Fold this protein.
Amino acid sequence: MVVELISVGTELLLGNIVNTNAAYLAEKCAGLGLSCYYQTVVGDNSGRLAGTIRTALERSDLVILTGGLGPTQDDLTKETAAGVWNRQLAMDPHSLERIETYFRERGLEMTENNKKQALVPEGAIVVDNDNGTAPGIIMEKEGKRMILLPGPPNELKPMFENSIAPFLTGLENPDAPGIIFSKTVKICGMGESKVESQITDLEALANPTVAPYAKTGEVHLRVTARAEDEKEAKKLVKPVVKELKSRFGSAVYTTEEDVTLEKAVVDLLLANELTVSTIESCTGGMLAARLINIPGVSEVFKTGYITYSNKAKRKIAGVKKGTLDKFGAVSPQTAKEMARGTALLTKADVTFSITGIAGPDGGTAEKPVGLIYMGCYVCGTTHVKEFHFSGNRAKIRETAVSAALTMMRQCILEYYSQKTFGKKV
């Protein structure tokens, strides 16, 4: 089945809002085994939107539209989609009651234009919105389908996962078995080209398929199988996932969909009852923020410092003045002293330091923009590593934090691989 994504909103065209919905839906649709060849962004204009919908329906089996389901006059998605198929809109009492309840429970006044959101194209399937007022809409005609979803991500994502994904999974496909099962192998510390060079034989498989997706500092390999039932689909996926784990070893940090790299690190700390502290310069607390995003991290995270100036590095982490004068703030020596000094100060089992030049200014021929040094202290042993990142300031900092999480995880694993007292890795 071929799916096409249409994102509606002039604010998207102007760049006022980043189109995260398209990225989310593209990944989810791929996981369901749907082929996506086109994505379009169109403004709040009925004529242009209608033309975009007609083009999409000519070349795709399923069209998913996001945005434009609100109560205002420029919210035209539902009206335009209904018009393309010559459907009339009618008030849906169920949706109207849910909207009225939404406002009443929050003590808000419901204006007359909010009733517009309860208008539904004739013959459509209504999808309840448990996080907002605009319901989702599923329309079908002669083997083609349109799905209309609200624009706010906190409404779109749960609606898709709870209602739309099961609907799509249950659709009959005359060309293939009806059950699709996917497993994602998440790899850190390796580039996409290196990963792909090691799976060319697996990418040639027809069922299951193996598809790589590059992330910042990571590569995800999605293994997807079709079968008559879920048990058979899982059976097809299992040996491929096992083979990928064998090929990439400890670089695989999870095969669970909801586990991020930072969660994998926090879980490793929790499993081994290790405490952690961070000390950052050019990343300005971004590493600490990634760790603190994970529920339960309070059991292991002690403190995080931002030592942007040399004075702060000396005062907080005890970096020697002689080290800074001789080697500079951006040096392996400083990174090592930052990590060890933070360990002495906080009594943490694991400490991590980052110091570097994020740019756009400040680089030299000897120390260019993108040069980062990181230090990781684990139970008395300190490792220091040099990195060279490219891109703008934001990209360098983001990439550095992903590399830091990978390095912290690797250092902990290496520490316990040399021990024999049975700690969990």
User: Anything to note?
Assistant: The first strand starts at residue 2 and ends at 8. The mean pLDDT is 93. The domain at 2-169 is CATH 3.40.980.10 (Molybdenum Cofactor Biosythetic Enzyme; Chain A). The two ends are 41 Å apart (CA to CA).
